[in-house]
């Protein structure tokens, strides 16, 4: 157990678990100060691309196959869409609810991984994923004896979060294929660069008139933007490392234990309610993660 916890992929998972909810906090803070989700996404990709250029000689950028580019392009399109949906969802909804919804990404990626990568989970691994989903069910219930209802899906923030997890759950499978055909570092560079190009084109063609106001917000709130850039960078690097050593479905299931931090951050920074119920669900999710760690 201890040797597994301190192995490289699980250290990467630990970094991802911390960085993801922190990034959501910074995204929510920025959008509450009138930052446009698409601009936030574009700026994030742009900064990370510039950061990659400083160490460009460490990436293998030549002799990449056509299959690599196909997987990377699909991954990038889905990644940009997922990030924009996610930032918009965090602006509208509670972190303590939207974080646990992300648990269903593990189910999406498990199914996609079976079809695209031929990754077959064990029964105990499936049990772990099931506990993570069950824990999210408790978090999404309203308390006071009421349970989760499909009416929740009618909430705009929940629909956006579901769209984001669908995109990111599928893009993880294509990202892993790209990593298998190159390296975690090379895939990270092209994830940043292609994401920046696509989000910039989208922003210029649809929201260019907001750029002066968005640039002003960026200059005024640069510490928050910088913190977001660092968190997203750490999150994606750790994701690539985990994907290079683990099944996509298992890795994404483990990532969802960050719901525990999402609940605490939502309570601490945004005064969100239902702490005990949400913590109970988050603990069940962590139990599922332990099963995956032990029997992956």
Automatic annotation (TrEMBL):
The chain crosses the membrane at residues 6-26, 38-61, 67-86, 107-138, 158-175, 187-205, 225-243, 250-270, 276-295. This is EamA family transporter. SUPFAM superfamilies: Multidrug resistance efflux transporter EmrE (SSF103481). Residues 24-140, 162-293 form the EamA domain. It comes from the Bacteria. Pfam families: EamA. GO terms for cellular component: membrane. Keywords: Membrane, Transmembrane, Transmembrane helix.
């Amino acid at each position: 157990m201890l040797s597994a916890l301190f192995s490289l992929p699980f250290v990467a998972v630990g970094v991802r678990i911390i960085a993801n909810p922190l990034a959501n906090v910074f995204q929510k803070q920025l959008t509450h100060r009138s930052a446009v989700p698409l601009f936030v996404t574009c700026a994030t990709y742009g900064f990370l691309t510039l950061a990659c250029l400083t160490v460009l000689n460490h990436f293998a950028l030549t002799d990449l196959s056509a299959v690599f580019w196909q997987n990377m392009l699909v991954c990038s399109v889905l990644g940009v869409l997922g990030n924009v949906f996610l930032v918009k969802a965090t602006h509208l909804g509670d972190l303590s609810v939207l974080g646990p919804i992300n648990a269903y990404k593990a189910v999406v990626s498990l199914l996609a991984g079976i079809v695209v990568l031929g990754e077959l989970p064990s029964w105990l691994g499936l049990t772990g994923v099931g506990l993570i989903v069950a824990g999210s069910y408790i978090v999404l219930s309203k308390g006071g004896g009421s349970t989760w209802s499909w009416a929740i899906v009618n909430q705009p923030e929940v629909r956006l979060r579901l769209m984001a997890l669908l995109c990111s759950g599928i893009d993880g499978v294509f990202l892993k294929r790209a990593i298998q055909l190159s390296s975690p570092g090379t895939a990270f560079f092209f994830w940043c660069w292609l994401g920046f190009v696509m989000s910039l084109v989208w922003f210029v063609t649809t929201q260019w008139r907001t750029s002066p106001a968005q640039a002003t917000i960026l200059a005024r709130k640069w510490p928050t933007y910088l913190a977001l850039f660092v968190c997203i960078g750490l999150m994606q690097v750790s994701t690539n490392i985990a994907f290079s050593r683990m099944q996509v479905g298992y890795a994404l299931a483990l990532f969802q234990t960050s719901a525990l931090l999402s609940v605490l951050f939502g309570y601490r920074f945004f005064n969100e309610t239902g702490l005990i119920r949400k913590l109970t669900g988050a603990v069940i999710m962590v139990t599922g993660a332990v099963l995956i760690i032990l029997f992956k």
